[in-house]
Amino acid sequence: MDGTPACDAVELRVHGISGVSAERILDHPMVIRVAGDRHAGFFRPRPGSGTAGGAAAGVAVEAYRWGSLTAGAAVRTASMLLLLPFMLSNLAIWMRPPGRDRWGLLGMLCRLLAGTLTTTFVLAIVGVSLDLIGWQCVPYPGCRAGRPYLAWLHTLPSGPRLALLSIVPLVALRVVWAIGTRSARAFEGFGPSSAQHPTGGTDDLDDAGFWNDEQTTGWLRQIHVALGVGTLDVSLLAGISPGGLGATGHLVQFVAAVGLLVLCVVLLCRPVPTSTAQSRRLLRPLWAVVVAVTALCLVSAVLAGAMPSGSGKLPGYEGAAAGVVAAQGVLLIVLTAVTYARQRGSSPGDHRPFLHGLGTPIVAAAAVCVGAAFTASLVYRTADTLDHGDIPDPIRPNAAIVGPLEPPVAYWWAALAGLAALLIGAAAASATLLLSRRRRRGLAASIIERDYPNASPEDAHRLRLVRETIARSRVTEELGPVLVAFLVIASLGLATVALDVIGIGPTQLAARLGGGGGAAGLLVAYLTDAGVWVISLLVVCLLILGFRAYRSSQTRRLVAVLWDLGTFWPRTVHPFAPPCYAARAVPELAKRVTGLARRGPVILSGHSHGSVLAAATILQLPPAVLARVSLLTYGSPLGRTYARLYPAYLGPRTLGDLGERIGWRWRNLWRDTDPIGGPVFPADAPPPRADPAAGEVDIRLRDPRSLTIDPADTVPPPIERHWPYHTQAAYQVAVSELADRSR
């Protein structure tokens, strides 16, 4: 079917997050797909089965269902949980303050921080394979006893053994690369033309190539793979020369491996090339160095033969882990300072951003903390298993029969910082919600007095319920200070890992500060143990969630909510992040709207996050099409959340420009009880240089519609909160008005 409308106007509904069905979008039990495919398609009620729920007279209703792009295959949804740190690092740059990124400084810092996440990931696999297994466990009979899968490695000399185990980090790099590539196949065929350039994270949403991140992702992918391989090369060279770099050959190779890492850092600092030919000219020498250095390292390890492992960790591994984590803390501090300076220098007329303008460093800190949690959990749980359930530390030394399984002290610091951030963050959140409760209730009471001035005493219980609902819906605005506190604690906590570079761990520092009694060191040892176990428990819960997503479609939709919010933006920072589904959804919506507009007016109707997709689609439409397009949003987070979280891309200026493009044929329905939606243009923050028509966009709906029971009903009207909106008369009135204005 071609989806030709029976009416002259079409209402195209776009759903929000969590991947609802086409039947629910249309509020109709029998639907048929008229365009698209199984990943994302356009649906209408089956001919002869009646109209869609909430349809206005003379307007055909069509639904665009895109939820399967993020909540489709169970394996894809579960496996992408592993990419959470990469996704958060990619999301951070889009929260930057408004204005151009002068000298590309914010983008450079975010790319460098993303590079440390790749290094952390590779170091975690190196710590498990080369350090814990190849260097510490295999040489000791007590550790490899009863483990035939490790015993055969003891027959190999230590050099060839480390060279063989180096395959594990290389395979891990390939796996995370494949997960993102595999899940991106649903978006094939919907990219912009080759004449359109990539965004690079600095353009506007109306740029033709904004959603085309293929060239940027390809460029960063090559660098990150080279960075991961270079990290492995340095670790391997340190392992095959335990007595120091006395041999000239080892010294030359080590300098070459470090030079490879420096080259990757330099490439991350430069802007993304604007042409494929330029990218190839820069990447060919890089990969020549990668292949040459890696081959020399592997050959050197094989020829090194047997070397005494001695005791302790793989040489150089402790310093590498501490250096990377400390570098992350320093980068977060610098990123915070640069972002704050940019926010202070913004125009006074700009909308007040959420999180005090520090969204970029806060989300970057979350990415680093999640990555550290994954790393520490993997290394410590592996050490726990190999060490028969007893991880050693300075307070509890190893038994003589068991190998010296000693994870890096840097992860103890990270665990202690993570536990502190978790506890202080939870306490700050509880205090914030408690202190703001009276203010939120007062605001809710004033709204109730305005909406129900003549409420009877019998409605007292109902009024309390409505008041509590409105008060709870205002919780989102209160979490800014909590997240800022989390940023400060996480940055300082990660920066303290620099103490490990000079050989000071948490217990040693506590012992020095607490005198010679040792009680302080013992207390800190227990606290760091608790931190590791708490972090490990959180990671296990995340893995259980991934397993549940594989078994349960309902849980899979719950997991997809995270991806709907985190993978909306193109990948311009970390190439291993899950792909951007809007790279298909926005061009596909634009193509469908363009086709429908040739036949008559189109009302693009977006609920919740679907309103963001609808707004991005209109910004991509040509002027000839805009004359016949209107916008209806409801339960929309555009003004309440997105304008404040992403002020550089969806701020008041962009929303004002959006209204002007469609001649202010825009209506936004919202409720005070809605915890997500709100007005697009609040009365206290109108868009700069806005047309007076901007004041007519927002239409507030009273919720519930009445406190009393209708004579034809048996119960009072429900509190509808975020869904549904199409059941109210104001919805049909708005659709009819927009359709008339578009004709």
Notes on the protein architecture:
The chain is an alpha/beta fold and 743 residues long. It has helices at residues 22-26, 68-71, 74-79, 84-92, 105-137, 141-144, 148-151, 158-165, 167-183, 214-239, 248-269, 276-304, 317-344, 359-386, 409-451, 460-473, 480-495, 498-501, 506-513, 519-551, 553-566, 582-597, 609-618, 623-626, 638-645, 647-650, 652-661, 729-742; strands at 9-14, 31-36, 41-45, 59-65, 602-607, 629-634, 666-671, 698-701. Strands 2-3-4-1-5-6-7-8 form an eight-stranded mixed beta sheet, with helices on both faces. It is globular. The two termini are 25 Å apart.
Please outline what is shown here.
With 743 residues, the chain is α/β, with parallel strands linked by helices.
Please tally the helical runs, counting DSSP H or I stretches of 4 or more residues.
28
Strand order of the largest sheet: 2-3-4-1-5-6-7-8
Largest sheet: 8 strands, mixed
Q: What is the C-alpha radius of gyration, as a whole number of Å?
A: 29 Å
Judging from the principal axes of the Cα atoms, what is the shape? globular
**Low-pLDDT sequence parts:** 1-6, 192-202, 242-246
Strand content: 5-15%
Alpha carbon gap, first and last residue? 25 Å
Mean pLDDT: 82
| Structure summary, number of beta strands | 8
**Helical amount:** 55-70%
The helix-and-strand class reads alpha/beta
